[in-house]
Amino acid sequence: MNKATRKAIIAGNWKMNKTRPEAKALLEEIKPLVANAQDAVEVIACVPFTNLETALAVTEGSNVKIGAENVHFEKSGAFTGEISADMLTELGVEYVVIGHSERRQYFGETDETVNKRTLAALQAGLKPIVCVGETLTEREQGITEEVVAKQTKIALMGTCEKCIKNVVIAYEPVWAIGTGKVATPEQAQDVCGFIRKTIAGLFNQEIADGITIQYGGSMNAANCAELLAKPDIDGGLIGGASLKAADFNTIVQAAVNG
Ligand code: PEP
Questions:
Q1: Using a 6 Å cutoff on CB, does residue 172 contact ligand 1?
Q2: What is the Å distance from ligand 1's center to 242 Cα?
Q3: Pair 46, 15: CB distance under 8 Å
Q4: How far is the C-alpha of 209 from the C-alpha of 81, rounded, in Å?
Q5: Residue 107 gets which letter from DSSP?
Q6: How far apart are CA 216 and CA 99, in angstroms?
Q7: Rounded Cα gap, residues 132 and 123, in angstroms
Q8: CA–CA separation, 71 vs 98, rounded Å?
Q9: Helix (H/G/I), strand (E/B), else coil: 41
């Protein structure tokens, strides 16, 4: 399948940034800039839980979709501080980032909990953006493919063929996130292509050809066009550059043109 037939997705990951008035202002700025992307590119802002309701209200009727940055795998119960998938869908949230490397690194997220969260999200009707990626040490040891294959396989364990169409994979080399050290377009393409092959092995070629695979890791206005031009890179998960409307829009427009 040709890249042009896959859904291109540019998603901002705001991390722990922006109060509600700041979130409103940023989204008001982004909305008109990206309005032309409507049919070509799905534009998403993944925002802190406290901003979800504001973000949904501000973007209502626009082509900017809203995502959460995490979700718990249990439906309800004694899990102080956690948010369930049903709570997100009830608000009107469509996407959720799962297994971001910061969650793996600082909050004990494992491949197994990533899998549980992915299944819970899908069951509730959310579209998970599942993050995978190797550390610098793993890349230097030459085990990038091994690591990424394991993360992808475990994350998708138990996912039905119908549900997998709602999954987005974000390849995010840990060494490139928030560091300014971007993967070369060739490095990013190699791993995104490998992830597609892994998904073909898990399901079939048709499913693998249809799944959106993003690159994330210091993608910005200056380097996005080259990355997004690669055949297996269908979009981006953007941290720092998603907090500046003009930069985020440059990335969206590169995806429209890519
Ligand atoms: C991210 O948070 O997923 C990310 C890729 O961050 P940055 O773009 O800042 O590297």
A1: yes
A2: 9
A3: no
A4: 38
A5: S
A6: 13
A7: 21
A8: 7
A9: strand
Dihedral, CA of residue 161, residue 162, residue 163 and residue 164, to nearest 10: 50
Question: What would the pLDDT profile of 77-96 be if each residue is shown by its tens digit?
Answer: 999 999 999 999 999 999 99
CA of residue 77 to ligand 1 center, whole Å? 32
For the chain, give every domain's residue range: 8-257
Q: Is the overall model pTM greater than 0.90, yes or no?
A: yes
Report, at the CATH architecture level, how domain 8-257 is classified: Alpha-Beta Barrel (3.20)
> What pLDDT is attached to residue 31?
98
Residue 39 CB-density burial (10 A; 0-12 exposed, 13-18 middle, 19+ buried):
exposed
Nearest to 90 by CA among 122, 54, 50, 126: 126
Q: How does residue 1 score in pLDDT terms, banded at 50, 70 and 90?
A: low
In angstroms, rounded to a whole number, what is the distance separating the alpha carbons of residues 18 and 37? 24
